[in-house]
Amino acid sequence: MKSYVEHANITVSDTDHTIKLLLTALPDWSIRGEGVNQDWFGKSINWYHVGNENSYIAIQSGGEEKSGHWSEHWTGVKHIGIAVPDLEALITRLENAGFPIDHRGADHPHRKNVYFLDQHNIQFEFVEYLSSEPTKRNDYSL
């Protein structure tokens, strides 16, 4: 087995908003687990694992501020990238649900990508690969 990213954990103030963005973007994902931690360092939080059988985003409540904007020079995760089979369909679903595109990625002959922000300034990158050949998909010299 090769190593892979199994999950990322994010804290937000409005879990419903971020879950709606992810489930709208990725209709093959679901809430695969959820619960309550009564004492998360002095605070009760709700947590959700949103994803599929292989990977997920752990989303927990309890956030008190927004993340900095991705273009600013703060330390932390700038975005979470998720590969998808049909980027244009994803864009249509998100825009119809009220989530505007933040920006598109650079032109590349073997992949296309787009970025969306949730209301907490957490950025999600969605990428569609147009080649099954890793050398083409991962060519950064273009």
From TrEMBL:
InterPro entries: Glyas_Bleomycin-R_OHBP_Dase, Glyas_Fos-R_dOase_dom. Pfam families: Glyoxalase. Keywords: Lyase. Residues 44-126 form the Glyoxalase/fosfomycin resistance/dioxygenase domain. Gene3D superfamilies: 2,3-Dihydroxybiphenyl 1,2-Dioxygenase, domain 1. The keyword Lyase applies. The keyword Lyase applies. One of its GO terms (molecular function) is lyase activity. This is Lactoylglutathione lyase. It comes from Photobacterium sanctipauli. The lineage of its organism: Bacteria, Pseudomonadati, Pseudomonadota, Gammaproteobacteria, Vibrionales.
